[in-house]
Amino acid sequence: MAEFMDLEAQDGVRMPWNVLPGTKQEATASCVVPVAAIYTPIKSFPNMPVLPYTPLRCRTCRSILNPFSIVDFVAKIWTCPFCFQRNHFPPHYASITDENLPAELFPQYTTIEYEDKLATGPSSPPVFMFVVDTCIIEEEMAYLKSALSQAVDLLPDHSLVGLITFGTFVHVHELGFGEIPKTYVFKGSKDISKDQLLEHLSFFLKKPKPPVGVIAGARDGLSNDAIARFLLPASECEFVLNSVLEELQKDPWPVPADQRAPRCTSTALGIAASLLGACFPGTGARIMAFVGGPSTEGQGAIVLKNLSEPIRSHKDLDKDSAPQFHKAVKFYEGLSKQLVNQGHVLDLFACALDQVGIAELKGAVEKTGGLVVLAESFGHSVFKDSLKRVFQSGDHDLGLATNGIFEINCSKDIRVQGIIGPCASMEKKGPLCSDTVVGQGGTSAWKMCGLDKATSLCLMFEIVKKENLDGMVPSNNNTFYFQFITYYQHQSGQMRLRVTTLSRRWVAGQGSVQELIAGFDQEAAAVVMARLVSFKMETEAEFDPIRWLDKALIHICSRFGDYQKDSPSSFSLSPRLSIFPQFIFHLRRSQFVQVFNNSPDETAYFRMILYRENVANSVVMIQPSLISYSFHSGPEPALLDVAAIAADRILLLDSYFTVVIFHGSTIAQWRKAGYHNMPEHQAFAQLLQAPHVDADAIVKERFPVPRLVVCDQYGSQARFLLAKLNPSATYNNDAPLPGGDVIFTDDVSFEVFLDHLQRLAIQ
């Protein structure tokens, strides 16, 4: 794995296949794990140069000069590795020689960034529109108000802020007239167009209304004064905003005992999108929605007001008996198109014991690259700490960037099927696009309204190179090239262009199997399979995920394993592949595939996070890490197995969304007896402290902040650990393991799974 991590540290890329099958036939035969790349477009690299000039582009395919270009220093010409076009260097490159290279030709700078000096006009400040749910109980209201006023304090002074609150009605708050707080009220069940909204908010009192269809920002007739009534610099409106938040009350409209609160989430988000679209089109603006319950009013309602009607479950969605679902999804699809056109981001903070509609909102948050946090309450550390992280600067800042466009270029024998990840297709068709579409496909350019230094895209490719008639592979050159171009607005406000150029070689024919194995990255492969299986579960009606994963694994093992036919005991896998079956075993049991013990909102949330995280974090979601602490040894990795549990051990489980500190029964008894407070038991106090220190370190650098569970063996919360362990000892076994624990489950253990796999692979 180390060499793949080195590649990632240089370019932010991990690929399941680092040596690619050379022809379409080879690819079809060997690659049940697709040819793919997981790329983090603006990962931070401390040593990456930022060049103060514009990049040189190939005049045919528009790819950018890179270390793989062939340079003729005498004629001052460079040849593009993608289309072999010869390009002249412009006059300011006249002094280049092989001793005097520009930075973009240095072999170690395969990833490089350019400052766009030509991006016209002053850079626009970041814009935040808070959209706040008031249909929540007093206690939740107090938590939310305190979190929001903390967030307001952390906002950069020059950023612009607006506030919309909603319940039965939508209230747009005018912050620009601080002496008398003023709000404009809209009916929650009624649709408001952009023109109507501007009319109602009296944007055209002093100026004549411009012709229909051209209302977009100050340059089209909206006066800056009118905009400043609703969106003000944080430094100017901090006092007004805080006093409005302090006065904020629970929605005053009475709710009958047999009904849900009338909550018009979709109408409020529609108004927020239209207001930002009118005032700040094409700039980095974020709608931050804080929702505390299910939406029951407007086009995005997920359930009727009557409590007798249950909120949709996975079963209802499977049987197509959730009447509100499709209507709400359609509404949010329209909203996501509007936001993508405007270049704006939708962030969602869903804090409720009930579902709020993340499953319906998923497309709008994902296509705009928004952040999502799911917690049980606005008072929970998962929400409070995550919100703080959004505005934090320093080591743990998220590196939020906006207004991104991501483009790809690759050798002509490869086509792009699409991207699974937070972006939206720009429908730029061309010879690079495959006929098979996966995720956001049919294009070679994507819009990324919001992205941060951890946002990772999963790009899917297909090999289209054909064999010659005599079975030989065309051997003009055995290298494939990929170039990823990301144009985005940096936190500092300036526009940047980042270019990553990769080369990978292909192999075909006899002896290629060993080379394919040598270039196989099993962690990246597991993550690509996880994204793909989740995507298929969302989009294909009759899809059986377990069967699909099992078939893929059997195929890989029979193609790349060593064995004698019909002799299971002879089966072995190269170390390059040996952990892959284990990943698939845990993926089959994970929350991405086993959806019936989660609500549709939880499933949508887990998948949204999986679709945006890098390989290291995604692997922890699929197969959690387990560390054991005891008196006999320092902290050490433990097998993710029931056998890891012992009375005198503490275990730390990191399953990404939850971090569990689990005390064995003896340790728990000693702790309850207070031994760690006695001076002669210093060692025990240190043992208890060690997992908390490590858990804190995990929590500090992760977004969303994970839930921390501290529990004891045989306690009710021990289920958070037991659910993730390999059930090698269950109530079915004759002899449970000494000192371990027994799990009450009918799931098969990894040993049984592996045994079946070996028998099927050798047939």
Topology:
Layout: H1 2-11, E1 13-14, E2 19-21, H2 24-30, E3 35-39, E4 50-51, E5 70-72, E6 77-79, E7 86-88, E8 111-115, E9 127-133, H3 138-154, E10 160-166, E11 169-174, E12 182-187, H4 194-200, H5 224-230, E13 232-233, H6 234-247, H7 265-279, E14 285-291, H8 314-318, H9 323-342, E15 345-351, H10 358-367, E16 372-375, H11 381-391, E17 401-410, E18 414-420, E19 424-425, E20 445-451, E21 457-463, E22 479-489, E23 495-507, H12 512-518, H13 522-539, H14 545-560, H15 580-589, H16 600-610, H17 615-622, E24 625-629, E25 636-637, E26 650-654, E27 658-663, H18 665-672, H19 682-700, E28 707-712, H20 719-722, H21 750-761
Parallel strand pairs: 2-23, 4-8, 9-10, 9-14, 14-15, 15-16, 27-28
Antiparallel strand pairs: 1-3, 3-21, 5-6, 6-7, 8-23, 10-11, 10-13, 11-12, 17-20, 17-22, 18-21, 19-20, 22-23, 24-25, 24-26, 26-27
Helix pairs in contact: 3-6, 3-11, 7-9, 9-10, 10-16, 13-15, 13-17, 14-15, 14-21
